[in-house]
Amino acid sequence: MILCKEEYKKDIDKTIFPGIQGGPLEHVIAAKAVAFGEALENNFKTYQQQVVKNAKVLAEALINEGF
To answer: Which one of the record's GO molecular function terms can you name (predicted)?
Structure first.
């Protein structure tokens, strides 16, 4: 519970909801379930390793171009 003067009420309310407080959003729960399910698959580790390889190649190319 936050106690404040009336002049700060609106700013505090906007900061708290929906920013750090909100209801359980079914589509977010479903998306997380799908992502966790994919992470359990055998080929997910291979996918992660390829992402790291791609990032290294991209970083090297950007460095070579002066970025």
So the answer is: pyridoxal phosphate binding
Within a domain: 66: yes
- Assign 1 to helix, strand or coil: coil
In-domain check, residue 42 = yes
Would you say residue 1 lies in a domain?
no
Q: How many CA atoms lie within 13 A of 43 on its CB side?
A: 0
d(CA 2, CA 62): 48
In a domain, 6, yes or no: no
Q: Please report, rounded to a whole number, the percentage of residues in the chain having pLDDT higher than 70.
A: 88
Strand ranges for 1-62 from DSSP E: none
Distances (CA, A) of 42 to 31, 35, 59: 19, 14, 27
pTM for the predicted model, two decimal places:
0.53
Q: What pLDDT is attached to residue 62?
A: 97
